[in-house]
Amino acid sequence: MAPKKRSERKRKTETETERPDESGGGDASEHRIISKEKTEGKGEHKYIGAHVSIAGGLWKAVEASVEMKGRSFALFLGSQRSWKRPALDSAAAVKFQEACNSHGFQPNHILPHGSYLMNCGSPKQDVFEKSQAMLVDELSRCSALGLTQFNLHPGASRDSSTEECLDRIAQAINHAHQQVPAVTTVLENMSGQGSTVGGQFSELKGIIDQVRDQSRIGVCLDTCHAFAAGYDISLPGGVKSMLEEFDKVVGLQYLRAFHLNDSKGKLGCHLDRHEDIGRGQIGLNAFREIVNEPLLDNIPLILETPGRPGFEYAEQIELLYSLCED
Ligand SMILES: [Zn+2]
Ligand SMILES: [Zn+2]
After folding, report:
1. pTM for the full model?
2. What is the number of domains present in the chain?
3. pLDDT in tens, 77-102
4. Cα–Cα dist 261/207, whole Å
5. Quick one: where's region Disordered (predicted)?
């Protein structure tokens, strides 16, 4: 990138980080203007953002998204290390919702990501039960935060069959839906590493078919996972082909979000190793096709890339918007 462009970017970031104080009245209106400018520019129907940290409080995720000019975001709803997490702090929940409102983030552009500890497909009864309980807890947290969808890694079969695994996952989802109203569970496609299920679209369909409330189940397509699972989006027209395949097998009506990641691993390698946009085996063209694909309007398009120094989320979001042709 040319040095001139970089200094322009830096200047914008500095303006954005000037926050008067925590109450931030004037701050909010300033950001509304910024996001309005963006909606009038290129890619106005594209909601590109990133998975952001909640260190220091849930609302910090909102602030980080604003700083990087994200229009959507993902976050964890608690610690990734523990099965037993402290209850959601109601003051923090209020602060989070206020931040979302003042910066104009709608619930359908926010996609919380589930804890990596969960395996709702586990053949081990204790792991299954803990995972099922955690799924209930995750959906309850979404509800308490006014969020409407939740991103779940389906699970892994371990030493059981894929079919049994898909059955258990659907059972856990049905149970959680019974316990918590309204929130939609969004299954993520996987790379097919080890015994994880959801690498093939047919496996996602196998779960979806068993979910009782069809209005509360969806899919988030992760580009790195899809490529690693064998869907070649690096080819010209590759994104369109993948979406056609998805429509045929699952149905586009279930598509709720995308994760935008390049892949360190080669096509079909089954490795879940994310790379910065345009710097991996997928390449920039697929992402150009994604940000210009009308089927992906108005859904969260979320980065989960390493974000190396000099090419962090803000730069990758800017790059992606620069690829938008209208
Ligand atoms: Zn994920
Ligand atoms: Zn992902």
Report:
1. 0.88
2. 1
3. 998 889 999 999 999 999 999 999 99
4. 24
5. 1-33
